[in-house]
Design a protein that fits this description.
CATH class: Alpha Beta
Distance between the termini: 16 Å
Shape: globular
CATH topology: GIY-YIG endonuclease
CATH superfamily: GIY-YIG endonuclease
Structural class: alpha+beta
Number of domains: 1
Strand content: 25-35%
CATH architecture: 3-Layer(aba) Sandwich
Largest sheet: 4 strands, antiparallel
């Protein structure tokens, strides 16, 4: 499966209008100090990407590790639009197991079928 990520969008309240109000899979990344690259921190899916972006920025964010990271570090949001709920679930699970996103909780892994666990997910950036 080949996916194309959106451009990275800095996670700031001023950026909310740059996030579409549509379903998709998303990823939160941090900037590495060593080589200037990006490190994957969180993967999720949503019926409304703008709404979930806003939720992660709110005080109601339930993931304390992610909440603190977003307050203290420079972070980025990127997404892959997808209208099909099962595809979103499967892709979220495949990305989670491929990259071991450090802020996803191990006791509650994504609910996808596992369809993409054994096939290669080819990723490109917009």
């Amino acid at each position: 499966m080949k996916i194309t990520w959106s451009n990275r969008i800095p996670i700031q309240t001023t950026q909310i209008n740059n996030i579409p109000e549509r379903p998709g899979v998303y990823e939160i990344q941090g900037r590495k100090k060593t080589d200037g690259g990006y490190t994957r921190r969180y993967v999720g899916m949503s019926e409304n990407l703008r709404q979930v972006y806003s939720k992660h920025l709110s005080d109601d964010e339930p993931n304390e590790k992610l909440k603190n990271f977003l307050k203290e570090k420079k972070a980025f949001f990127r997404y892959v639009p997808s209208n099909a709920e099962q595809t979103r679930k499967d892709l979220e699970k495949g990305l989670y197991y491929k990259h071991k996103h450090s802020f996803n909780t191990l006791d509650n892994p994504p609910a996808g079928s596992g369809k993409y666990l054994k096939i290669k997910i080819e990723e490109t950036n917009a």
